[in-house]
Amino acid sequence: MAKKDAPPRWDRKMQQRLARGEAAALGELYDRFASLVHGLAHTVLGDERAADHITHDVFAHVWEHPDSYDPRQGPLRSWVATLTHRLAVQRLRATETAALARAGGQGSPEELERKVRHASVAARADYIVQSMPVPLRAALELAYFQRRDYRQTATDLGVTEDEARRRLRLGLQLLSTAHDAGAAPGAPPGYGGAA
């Protein structure tokens, strides 16, 4: 039996392959996480081209600095999401600061920080929903998008009403952590940090 704090085997192997400079490893990593990276970047920036640039920057950083990921600190997925969040927020701050300067006093640094916080919470919520177990996500999607109550959700999912309530409660509890200001999307301890 593996130790509780041992990183997943795939994460360790991928980090080792990237450190050896295996281009195929970067391709596999891209295939696995490109939609996550692009989606998070787009959520923060609200711009398709900017999200494309961040996606490129994230995978370039991973390729150039594979040793900056430590498998003992948490899943590779969380590290990639945190890196994406950090780069996207940096870009958002830079573009919004430049826009403030061009506007000649229109807007304020407080408005900029409010926009950054809002984008960070949205990105974290997206990451949490994508990462939560399928049964929880399915219950939340039924309740939110199809406006089902817990009884209807139980019927649709083929579970008891108690189980439907439990899934909805757990899903909402996970989602409520999106407002934790001190953490980047999905960041485990050690990969967090304020936006």
From TrEMBL:
Give the SUPFAM superfamilies listed for this entry. Answer: Sigma2 domain of RNA polymerase sigma factors, Sigma3 and sigma4 domains of RNA polymerase sigma factors
Q: What is this protein called?
A: Sigma-70 family RNA polymerase sigma factor
Q: Family per UniProt?
A: Belongs to the sigma-70 factor family. ECF subfamily.
Per the UniProt entry, what is one GO biological process? Answer: DNA-templated transcription initiation
Q: Which residues form the RNA polymerase sigma-70 region domain?
A: 29-94
Q: Which PANTHER family match?
A: RNA POLYMERASE ECF-TYPE SIGMA FACTO, RNA POLYMERASE SIGMA FACTOR SIGZ
Keyword hit for Cytoplasm: no
Q: Which UniProt keywords apply?
A: Sigma factor, Transcription, Transcription regulation
- One MF term in the entry's GO annotations: sigma factor activity
